[in-house]
Amino acid sequence: MSRPPFLQIDPPQRLLMGPGPINAHPRVLRAMSADMLGQFDPEMTFYMNETMALYRQVFMTENRWTFLVDGTARAGIEAALASLIEPGALTLILRTGRFGLLLSEIAERLGADIRVLDLPWGETATPDQIEEAIKQHRPRVFACIHGDTSTTMAQPLDGIGELCRRYDVLSYADVTATLGGMPVRTDQWGIDVISGGLQKCMGGPPGSAPITISDRAADFIMSRRHVEAGIRSSSQTDGSRIRIASNYFDLAMIMDYWSEKRLNHHTEATSMLYAAREAACIVLEEGLENRFARHTQASTALIAGLRAMNLEIFGQDAHRMTNVTGLWIPENINGEAVRTRMREDFGIEIGTAFGPLAGRIWRIGTMGYNAVKHKVLLTLGALEAALAAEGYPVPRGAAVDAALACWP
Amino acid sequence: MSRPPFLQIDPPQRLLMGPGPINAHPRVLRAMSADMLGQFDPEMTFYMNETMALYRQVFMTENRWTFLVDGTARAGIEAALASLIEPGALTLILRTGRFGLLLSEIAERLGADIRVLDLPWGETATPDQIEEAIKQHRPRVFACIHGDTSTTMAQPLDGIGELCRRYDVLSYADVTATLGGMPVRTDQWGIDVISGGLQKCMGGPPGSAPITISDRAADFIMSRRHVEAGIRSSSQTDGSRIRIASNYFDLAMIMDYWSEKRLNHHTEATSMLYAAREAACIVLEEGLENRFARHTQASTALIAGLRAMNLEIFGQDAHRMTNVTGLWIPENINGEAVRTRMREDFGIEIGTAFGPLAGRIWRIGTMGYNAVKHKVLLTLGALEAALAAEGYPVPRGAAVDAALACWP
C-alpha cells in the first residue's frame, strides 16, 4: 500500500471465490467502456427496452415490468419494500440469516407492522410453516430471501407465491445471490416482486439491481403513484393510496420512466445499464439450464474436495445454494490467517461470515464466471496449502483429486 | 431501430451538448474495465480512501467525511436529506426551478414540515432574502440547489453556510450540475452537506454521487445512527435521535462502511468507484481553476455565437451557470424539429426543458469533456444549419465566427 497516490487504476488480479462480488466477465467490463447516450435518445431507450426483454428471460417471467433499479442489490430490496409496504402495513418476514434481518430492518424503517418467522441461521422454512404464519398473522406483505449467502442456504419458493395469493398477500423475494446461478422461476413461483444484483452469479459489477414486478403488484404500486411537481402535466393523475416514502425508490415513478411515457425520474446509470445488458446476454447465450447445471457441478466438486480434506460442510445438504458453500473452520485453526495466506500467497479470496457464524465458518463461492473447473481446483489446492501451513493435518493432494473426479 | 436484438453494445457516437449526461472522458470509460476486488480487500479499501482524498480536493474541503453514495445524483440528494431531516423537522427549501421542487418533493416524503422560498424560474435569491426566510421560519434545515439546470441559473452560496450556522440551521446544497465545472467552495461556503454527480462537468457516467459532510452535520447524523441487527456487536452503540427512515440512504451506516471500522452496508459499486476516482484524477490534473476558466470560456463563446444568430439568451447574465445555457426558441420555430435535425443530421444532442419552460427554451451544455472549442463551434454550425432548414432567418456563418473570436 505504499505506492504514490493517484496512479492509473490497476487492481491486482484476484480470483474472487467468496460470496460476492466475484470477477466480472470480461465482456461485461468491456461493455462499460461504450460512451454515453442522452437519456431520451431513441438509441438509449432502445437499449432500455432490450434490457427489459433480456431480464424477462433471466427472471423466467412474462412480467411487463422488468427493469433496473440504479443502485446496488440493496437498493432493489429497498425499492421493492418501500413500494409494497404502506406505513402500518402488517408485514411478515422470514428470517433465517443476515439478509432476512436486513428485510425487517428496512421494513421497520418504512413503518411496517412487522411479524417474523424466525428460524436458526442455516435452516429453511417449509410451505406449511409459512402458511401457518400467514394464517396466524394475516399480513398484507410477505418478504423473504431466496439464497441467503450468510448461511449458504436456499429457501424453496415453489408454491409460495400461490399460497400468498390465496391469502391476498403481496409477496417479495430477494434473489441477489441466486439470479443467473440457480433457478429463479418468477412466474412458476408466482412471487409478486423479485429483485437481484449483478455481482454474484450474473458475472457483473455491483451497482445495478434488476427487478421484476407482477401486474397485480404493479397495480398496487401505481395506486401509490405521485408525479413530481417539476414535471407534472394535466395528463398525469395521482393514485389514491399513501404516497411511497422515498422518491428515489418510488417504483411507480421508475415504471413511468421505463414506460413509453418516459417521464423523467433519475438519469439512468448508462454504464451500469450496458453492464446489466451484457451480463444478461452472456447468461442467455449459455442458456439458463446449462448455467444452473454448471453451478451445481462446480459446487458439488468443491464440496467433494473439501470433504476429502476432512472439512465439515455447514448446513443442510437438501437446501444448499449451489453457488456458495459454507464450511466450519477447524478447531485450533485461525480462520483469518488462512484467508490471508489464500489472498497473499495465491491471490484467491474466500469469504468470512457474519453474526452468529462470524469466525466459525468460511464461505466459498462458485459463482458466475468463476463457477468453472480450473477455478475450483486452484482454490482447493491453495486452501490445502494454506491449511497445512497453519498446522491442519490435511491429506495432501486429496482435495484436488476428489474434485477432479466430479467432472466427466 | 430495426437491428436484431442482443448484439454487442454499440451506441452511435453522439456529441452530447445538452444539460447532461454528456460524453464521458475516455479515461473514465477505460477505468471501468478494470476487474473487481473483494469489498474488504486492502487494495479495495486503499482505493476507497484514495477516492475520499481526491473528492476532498474536488469539493475544496477538509471534511473527513467525503465519499460516494451508490446511485445517481438523485440518490446523493435523498441520502443527504433523509439523514438531515427528522420527521416533523422544519425545513426551508429554496425553489427557483425543477430541482428545487425535487428537494421539497423528497423532503415531503421524509415527513418534513416544509417552508419554501419560491422565486420564478430563472431567478436566484439574495442572501438577504434567505436570511429573511430563515428569521421568519426558524428552520432546522435549509436546502437549495447550486446550479439548477432546469433554469441554467447558479445560486450564489458565498456566506450562506455562515448565515445558516448563525441561526443553528443545518445546510444542504446540491451541486450535481456544477461540480468540476464551476467553483464548489465547500469550506468557504460553510455549507454542511453537499452532494453531486459524475455525468455533468465531472466527465463521468451517471450512477455515483460524491458527497461531503461537515463534522457538525456528521455529529448530527451519527446521533441518528442505528447498526443493522445482522452485523451488530457489543462495541457498536446506537444514537439517541430518531433513526434515519431509509437503510440504503443512512449516511451514518455509510460512514461506518467508509471508515476504518468497515462495517458492512451495501457492496460498494466497484466499477462506478473506479469511474469516480478516475474522473477526479482528470479534474485535479487539469487543475480546478483552469477547469472553471475553460467552462467560462466555452459558454462565453457559445453565447456570443447564439447572439450572433439573433437568438435570445434565457435568464440573467449575472447568475448564469457557465456550463449550460438556456435560449428562447424563436417564434414559429418547432423546437423539437430542430433538435431532431441536430441529432439525426449532425449527431449532436441539445436539451429540451421542463415545467413552465417546456417547449419554450433549449438548453445547451458546455460541460466537462465537451467544454472545448471545437465542440462549441461544431454545435453552433449545426444549430445554424438546423435553424435555417426550419425557416429561421439566420445570418450564415456569423455564429461560428463570433464564437471563434472569443478564444485568444
TrEMBL record, chains A, B:
Annotated InterPro entries: Aminotrans_V_dom, PyrdxlP-dep_Trfase, PyrdxlP-dep_Trfase_major, PyrdxlP-dep_Trfase_small, SP_NH2Trfase/AEP_transaminase
GO BP terms: glycine biosynthetic process, by transamination of glyoxylate
Transmembrane segments: none
Sequence positions bearing N6-(pyridoxal phosphate)lysine: K200
Residues of the Aminotransferase class V domain: 38-351
Coiled coil location: none
Keywords assigned: Aminotransferase, Pyridoxal phosphate, Transferase
Signal peptide: none
Cofactor: pyridoxal 5'-phosphate
Protein residues bound to substrate: R363
GO-annotated molecular function: alanine-glyoxylate transaminase activity; L-serine-pyruvate transaminase activity
Keyword Repressor: no
SUPFAM superfamilies, A to Z: PLP-dependent transferases
Family note: Belongs to the class-V pyridoxal-phosphate-dependent aminotransferase family.
Name of the protein this chain belongs to: Aminotransferase V
